[in-house]
Write a structure and sequence with these properties.
- By secondary structure, the protein is an alpha+beta fold.
- It is built from 9 helices and 4 strands, in the order E-H-E-E-E-H-H-H-H-H-H-H-H.
- The protein has a 4-stranded mixed sheet, covered by helices on one side.
């Protein structure tokens, strides 16, 4: 059976990393059986990045490569009816979500306005972690941000990039149904991976304030969450 390795839960979502949650949601929507293993250390992963999968002895990293593999091997038909124009839209949205990722990560590990609350949430939900380990992770991520470029922004300027990305999603996500119709496709899993990690995030960043203020984003997030059979954070299972 396929095994998904990804970061642990936080604030009631199946993975506190948008890419891991994207793959989790895709596999669930596609009906592909899998085991889900939560890990903190990505050293053994392809490219030393999470998420990754192991499937019949093959290790595959990168969320898009994982999804492409699952579509080929398991005959997933989620996107089979999409037009070329819709597929082009999906690629553009996927690349924009890559930009949003850096802002979301920056808001957790670098922005001092929210770092302490994020650190405390991790320590509370995952006692195996230590303050020293998280401090080291913070320093590592700050180096990543600097070389990627987002780390050279002031916090409000970084947030502005993310809010611009969310603005596009707010205009794209319909008031009902999903991106390409009445049924979810892989791009809905991708959007959910990011929006759920903002909406259910129990810290009031500007990103969360934006999402909460847009009913279509909240409805889409909740609809995918329910389709996956996930309980709402704070509710009884």
């Amino acid at each position: 059976m396929l095994t998904l390795y990804s970061y642990p839960t936080l604030f009631g979502v199946a993975d506190n990393n948008a890419y891991g949650l994207k793959v989790f949601a895709f596999l669930k929507l596609a009906g592909v059986p899998f085991r889900h293993e939560h890990i903190f250390d990505a050293a053994a992963a392809p490219r030393a990045q999470l998420p990754y999968i192991e499937d019949d002895g093959e290790a595959i990293g990168d969320s898009d490569a994982i999804i492409a593999h699952a579509m080929r091997k398991y005959g997933v038909a989620l996107d089979s009816a999409l037009t070329q124009s819709q597929r082009d839209t999906d690629l553009l949205v996927t690349r924009m979500l890559d930009d949003l990722y850096w802002v979301m990560s920056y808001s957790r590990w670098k922005d001092e306005r929210y770092w302490t609350a994020f650190r405390d949430a991790l320590l509370r939900e995952h006692p195996v972690l230590t303050e020293d380990a998280l401090r080291n992770a913070k320093e590592f991520n700050e180096q990543r941000y600097y070389f990627q470029g987002i780390g050279r922004y002031e916090p409000d300027a970084a947030m502005a990039r993310g809010l611009a990305d969310l603005g596009v999603l707010a205009r794209l996500v319909p008031p009902d149904g999903f991106i390409h119709g009445k049924s979810p496709t892989s791009i809905d899993a991708g959007i959910y991976g990011f929006i759920a990690n903002i909406f259910f995030y129990d810290i009031d960043t500007p990103l969360k304030t934006f999402v909460v203020a847009h009913d279509n984003l909240v409805r889409h997030c909740r609809a995918i969450h329910a389709t996956l059979g996930m309980a709402l954070p704070g509710s009884n299972p």
